[in-house]
Amino acid sequence: MRAGRPDKGRGAPMSTGCPDEETGSTMSGALPFSRKATLRAERPAESFVLSPSAAEMAALAAALDLVAVRALTLEGSLERVSGGFAWQGRLEALVVQRCVVTHAPVTQRIAVPVGRRFVVAAAPATADVEVDPDADEIDYVPTGEVDLGAVAVEELSLALDPYPRTPDADAVVARYAPEDTAAGSERANPFAALAQRRFDA
Length: 201
Hints:
Helices cover 23% and strands 31% of the residues. The protein is of the alpha/beta class. It has a six-stranded mixed sheet, with helices on one face. A two-stranded antiparallel ribbon has the order 2-8. The radius of gyration is 24 Å and the shape is elongated.
């Protein structure tokens, strides 16, 4: 359930790499970027700076149909809160896409806040869920293990420009558009004229 985005996460001592060493930085199934953390009641609040390897960025670019992922960082803190766990942080990335008009490379810088709540339980039935537009998204994790890499992939996919365009895209469209396009838009519609004649009669 997506229900809004929080402010930038709180500061705390930071660690880099994987949230849990026992899970490592291995790929999980089809996920191009995976960093897992186990949610335990005794887990202390901890901050992370997570970044994919060069191979993972290449796999991520292929999975999202991008020319390249130049950089990606998910930074934030994971801590115990009432009813579960909370992740507050920020995603920053530098990606290259194809212009939808010219197919030339288009570079996009992404910087978005990321907020999630994790509840160690099975997801409730949809009819029982009340959506709060001001709340963080809630992820139900019956196994007690969350994949922060998957969170980064999802947030990146949502932040991508769906119609990337180069600065000269409009000029290219105008150059190859039919000459009578503009005139055609001003030309009287014959069916409209016929309808008007019937109305006048």
